[in-house]
Amino acid sequence: MAKVLMKGNEAIGEAAIRAGCVHFFGYPITPQSEVPEYLAKRLPEVGGKFVQAESEVAASNMIYGAAGVGVRVLTTSSSPGISLMSEALSYIAACELPVVVVNVMRSGPGLGGILPAQSDYLHATKGTAHGDFKMIVLAPASVQEAVNLVILAFELAEKYLNPVMVIGDGMIGQMMEPVEFPVEGVGKPLDPGNWALTGCKGRGKRIINSLYLDPEICYRHNLKLTAKYEEIRKAEQRFDTYNTDGPYDLLVTAFGMTSRIARTAIDELAQEGQRVALFRPITLNPFPYEALRAAASKAKRVLDLEMNMGQMLQDVRMALGPDAAIDFFGTAGGVVPSPDQCREKMLESISKTGSRPKAKGARRNP
Amino acid sequence: MPNTDTEVLMAGFGGQGMLLSGKILAYAAMYQGLEVSWLPSYGPEMRGGTANVTVCISEKQVASPYIAQPRALLTMNQPSLEKFGPRVRPGGLIIINSSLVPIKSDRADCRVIYVAANDLAAKVGTGRAANLVMLGVYVGLSGVVDAKVTEKIIEKEFSDKVKFIPANVAAFRAGLEEGVNARATNR
Prior knowledge:
Chain A is of the alpha/beta class. Chain A is built from 12 helices and 14 strands. In chain A, the strands form 4 sheets. In chain A, strands 4-5-7-6-12 form a 5-stranded mixed beta sheet, with helices on both faces. A 5-stranded mixed beta sheet of chain A has the order 9-11-10-13-14, with helices on both faces. The longest helix of chain A is centred in the middle third of the chain and has 21 residues, at 215-235. By secondary structure, chain B is an alpha/beta fold. Chain B has one domain (6-185): 3-Layer(aba) Sandwich (Pyruvate-ferredoxin Oxidoreductase, domain 3), CATH 3.40.920. Chain B is built from 6 helices and 6 strands. A 6-stranded mixed beta sheet of chain B has the order 2-3-1-4-5-6, sandwiched between helices. The longest helix of chain B is centred in the last third of the chain and has 21 residues, at 165-185. Chain B is globular, with a radius of gyration of 15 Å. The interface between A and B is medium-sized, with 27 and 22 residues.
């Protein structure tokens, strides 16, 4: 397949179609509006259904219903819209239905602004809505990876019967990069299993419900969900590293687009003989705690970079314990850190380790 | 072979076509097997007069698509020259559409080229294709992408508005000639 140059938002829409998802319910909001715009045009071409709901609350309840009847389904939104959708995500998780939700994050809190941010990390990974439930959360760092992870999101949603969120910032939605798509229909037809409401002629009735007034039954339901989340934790951790082969003094942690900005700074510092490596979680939940611990064990210090005021930082601290030397630099409000700013922060952290740059001739190529 | 690792910031008023010029450049580089990114402004500054796009071109995967200090700036209006001119990396390139920008750049540490892009475009077809004059100058000067490949991309971009192809290709060629000449004269 030839590469095409595509906006992240449009590529996300096309990826869903390639994964066999031809049902979309959503509501426009900057900076993700190109997803519904693209799908409004594309879905009728492939026999799908596009509905612009009257609100995000309605859209998320529409995906709840569509998933309930065994249809592969997608919704997308941006931060304030995702807040509105979150109630239904709790119901969907409770009912163990497979849905994929994409959050193209903008700055907050409140209506915030329309520019890129990563300030929904904790919302996505820890506290999406009421009740004990977890989503699988995937964070791409390129348009190509957004495509790959949207396709993976449908696989995981159906494997675990759980909502999966793909989370990126406004930059990844708005920018164009070359992408390659798999051929259409990479996803097998959705298996309605023993749960989907397909009409009960000739079989016993099925009920999709999240109301359990008997505390013992509700408790057992929570234990079942917890066992599933544990299975996901063991099997689905994904991460990427950069420059970790040789020795390094500083380990940078960053997810999504911030990791790309960090890489430019890391490459520049490598020219000066500074040894900096990068650890990038791809699954924000389940977070790769052990892998981060292993990567950090080779470094003298860790610098966490985010486009928020320190959210993944909580997981980095949890992974590395109270004695680890961890610095943090974050921007918010739609301000994107420049490679130069990241470079300065890396140098500050390195200066705290007391390491001197290695002789230029001895440096390894980045 | 020129150094292909570069970042270009293209800026102007909304509707002047700089986002399209950037897309054509990114496509041309991609067709030559290079890695690219195209990052537009979509925030409130678009309402303040500077629609802009940053195109990164590299032989390996583009790291940061967000560049505070680009190596080249192509500017179609005064606000974007005032805003982005000071940010160009020392030793970089600034191409100014002198048909619309009445001021000069004060960057003595950059190569600054003035092109009357609207006048040139009008002479060979239509002034509306000034954005492609600007792209032509950049391609001619930098040699980052092949001019023939770029022309093919222009034809492709206008494939549903075929009647606009000749004027746009002519504008690109007019700019290209300026760029090639400027390159030959060095400074």
